[in-house]
Amino acid sequence: MRNSTRSEVDPFIVMDVMEVARKAEEAGRRIIHMEVGQPSTGAPVAAQQALVQALQSDALGYTVALGIPALRERIARMYGEWYNVDLDPGRVVVTSGSSGAFLLAFTALFDSGDRVGIGAPGYPSYRQILHALGLTPVDIETAAENRLQPVPSDLSGLDLAGLMVASPANPTGTMLNRDAMAALIGATQEAGAAFISDEIYHGIEYEAKAVTALELTNDAYVINSFSKYFSMTGWRVGWMVVPEDHVRVVERLAQNMFICAPHASQVAALAAMDCEEELQANLAVYARNRQLMLEGLPKAGFSNIAPPDGAFYVYADVSELTQDSRAFAAEILEKAGVAVTPGLDFDPVRGATTLRFSYARSTADIEEGLSRLRSFMENR
User: In the chain, which end has fewer C-beta atoms inside a 10 angstrom radius, N or C?
Assistant: First the structure.
């Protein structure tokens, strides 16, 4: 059977690391998971209860393609509460996770062969989804002095049809402030390119509130998810906000590509949005873990790190320790029992000398992981 060239995407290395870690656990070892960007907590209790009640009274069949109206309205209200943005619920599209939103956004905005800029290091699936859709991902090599975020001068001469940014970013946790975000929006608009803002880590910030692109423009696609702050990774529900004149375009695509996001997940997501006390308690754990990482990683020998403003990652330059991050990560897993992610997932050029550490797990796990890393490095 033949394969398309579009299907020739790279593996998501962190998933391979998870599989090796799973096999080690199956063999009886206790592995500390610092590889995956997944909260250790489950969906908020009220979200689970809402679904139980719905299952007893509703068949939970198809919803309309754009999502349950009550959920779209609640998401729009959140923008007023978090950012003082007055958002029309009609512009909100509920999606099958942020991944579904990426597919819809890229399909709605770009034609085959279009060049779309993505920051490097950056979330690897941007690159692979673009390639699978017949688009051309353009890695923008970001600089440490710019907090590993793109700046307008990086876009010069790239002939981009669009730019994807993430703030807080994966894998670095760095954020764009209001001026930096405005500058990138202005540069893309001047070039006639589309601007897409990945905001799935909003809500997980530590010293300053993340800026949404919607504070600055209505002429953008904004993508978010219930996976991170709302602790609902496996439920596969997210959303995006699109310009008013794009709603019908996206609706037609969603009808044909997904029919709708999972009804059960939408019910739970709606309830989760009013679980602030529980969600803020989760955030307090991440904040504690972040402090432990910022203190403990340098003591273990990982001192050249990006400043994590949000999300739950630390991205480390390990060029003084290895030129093969994949082999180094495998060695750490084998000898220390700590799973970490090689930077090659996020930066095909410079990722051989970087690692990503996630601190989304329990504080006890983070303390144990740091202790193991310290012992490993002392005996290496």
Answer: N
Q: How far apart are CA 335 and CA 333, in angstroms?
A: 6
Q: Which helix (H) or strand (E) holds 263?
A: helix 263-272
pLDDT at 287: 97
User: At 268, which amino acid appears?
Assistant: A
For 63, the token pair is 């919803």
The rounded distance, in Å, linking the Cα atoms of 260 and 225 is 15
Q: What is the model's pLDDT at position 380?
A: 83
Could you tell me which residues are beta bridge partners of residue 140? 119
Q: Say yes or no to pLDDT of 300 above 80.
A: yes
Phi and psi (nearest 5°) for 308?
-80, 100
113 backbone φψ class: left, alpha, beta (φ>0; ψ -120 to 50): left
pLDDT, tens only, 219-259: 999 999 999 999 999 999 999 999 999 999 999 999 999 99
Torsion sign (Cα): 103, 107, 109, 111: positive
> Which tens digits make up the pLDDT trace of 34-75?
998 889 899 999 999 999 999 999 899 999 999 999 999 999
What letter represents residue 248's amino acid?
Answer: R
Give the closest residue to 163 by CA, choosing from 118, 200, 98, 107.
118
Percent of the chain surpassing pLDDT 70: 100
What does the DSSP 8-state code read for residue 157? T
Comparing CA positions, the residue from 316, 366, 82 lying closest to residue 205 is 82
**What confidence tens digit (pLDDT) does each residue in 316-329 have?**
999 999 999 999 99
Residue 243: its H or E element: none
DSSP designation for 352: G
Three-state SS string over 178-192 comes to: HHHHHHHHHHHHHCC
**Consecutive H or E run containing 74:** helix 69-83
Among the listed residues 347, 364, 356, 379, the one whose alpha carbon sits nearest the alpha carbon of residue 173: 356
Report the C-alpha gap between 113 and 317 in whole angstroms: 33
Residue 203 falls in which region: left (phi positive, over 0), alpha (psi -120 to 50) or beta = left
48: burial class by Cβ within 10 Å (0-12, 13-18, 19+)?
middle
Of 5, 41, 16, nearest to 312 by C-alpha is: 41
Mean pLDDT of 278-303: 97
pLDDT of residue 354: 97
Q: Is the pLDDT of residue 11 over 80?
A: no
